[in-house]
Each structure stands twice: as structure tokens, then as C-alpha cells.
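Researcher: Checking consistency across runs. Here is Haloacid dehalogenase type II again:
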Amino acid sequence: MTRVLAFDVNETLLDLTALDRPFEELFGSAASRAQWFSQMLQLSFIGGITGSYVDFTAAQRAALHMIAQREGSWLNREQVDATVALMNSLPPHPEVPAALARLAATPLHMVALTNSVQDVAEEQLRNAGIRHVFHRVMSADALRRLKPAPEPYLAVATAFNVHPGDVRLIATHSWDVTGALQAGCKAAFLQRPGAVLSPIGPRPDIVAGNLEELADLVIARDVR
């Protein structure tokens, strides 16, 4: 029985395409924004694999310098600070507020589960106008074990005193979905443009193209 919905935040709920113009101004192409986010994830994951922990904010800063170096340019501290700060004021995807409100009206507990550091996560959700729908905001940074390591997903189960199988992760990242399923949780994949599931490993039982469609499926399957 599903009792807790755990939502990834960046890209799943919040729209990173809002950063396309600032990245175009910095590097001459909006495509550098996606490259930066991928580089930041790689740095974070390498830190976890090698036992040299790197928090999300530090990884974002380092990834900016790497993208600049790759482009043959250089960023000063003010440019890096200003760019990273933009993560705190991302807008939600258009359908997110209404879909979250529908899910919040069910008996299911709602938690935001993110790799962002705690204060950034709280500010992101407040600025997006959706903090109030969540019972808790949980940062994997508190565990120094970022998703897709099992500890963040299991921490949600512990926080709500439920079995891992009673937790359903909702995310637009295949690696996040895989992490939750491998930890014994359920998952729902939000197939935003460009997002695809891994063809190997466990598969989620819910896949939808936007959060409204996903909310319909969750309510039909998980709400008693």
C-alpha cells in the first residue's frame, strides 16, 4: 500500500529551461545549460562512488567552471554566484501546482526528496509557491549520500514510519527511479521532453507525460 509520495524537485517539479537565456548569455548557447546540469550530476555521483562527498551546490559551481573551460572562456566569482543563485527561483512546470494540490488532498503524505542542500530546497519550493503542499522537505545532503544511493529513499520510509514499499518516488530522471526501485520503493516516471527510462533494470509501474496525467494514475492506483 502506498502511503507516502516522495517528489524529486529539480526538473521534475521545477523548470530548468528558465536558465536557458542566462546560459546563452554566458556561453553563447542555451544548450550549455543541459551540459552544465549533466556535468554537475556527474561530479556529485563521482563524489558518492569514490567516497569524496560533494554537495550539490559545490558541484554546480565546479561544473560551471568546467563548462567555461571547455568553451575556452573564464567566469569570475560574481558570475558563478549569480548563476548558481538562479536555481533558487526556478518556476514550476505549468501543470505542477494544480496536480500537487490534487495529490495533497488525498490521504497520502507528501515529501519533497532532493539532492539540493536543505536551505536551497526550502527556498526553491517557497519561491515556486508549492512549499505548503509538502509535509516535509528532505535533503539527501543531510545523509551525505545523494540519490540514487538507497539511503535517501529509506530515510523517507523511516521518517514516516512506513515500509520502503509504502513509498512511491516521482521523478523525471531514470537514475532516480532506478535508485528508488532498487531500495525497495515504488516509483512513477514523469516522462518530460527528452527524458527516457533505462532499458535495463527494474521498471516503474506508472509512466506519464506530465504531472496531471501522473496524478490521475497515482490516485487510481494508490488512493484507497
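Researcher: Does this match what you'd expect to see?
Model: One thing to look at in this run: The mean pLDDT is 97.
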